[in-house]
Amino acid sequence: MTQTARHGTDTVGALLHRWRLRRGLTQMDLALRAEVSTRHVSFVETGRSSPTAPMIVTLCEALEVPLRERNTLLLAGGFAPAYREHGLADPPMAAVCDAIAHILKFHEPYPALVVDRGWDLVDANGALTPLLAGVADPSLLEPPVNVLRLSLHPDGLAPRIENLAQWRAHLLRRLGQEIEASADTGLERLRAELRGYPCPGGAGTAAGNGGADAGGAEDGIIVPLRLRTDVGVLSLLSVTTVFGTPLDVTVSELAIESFYPADAETARVFTG
Question: Which residues form the HTH cro/C1-type domain (predicted)?
Answer without folding.
Answer: 16-70
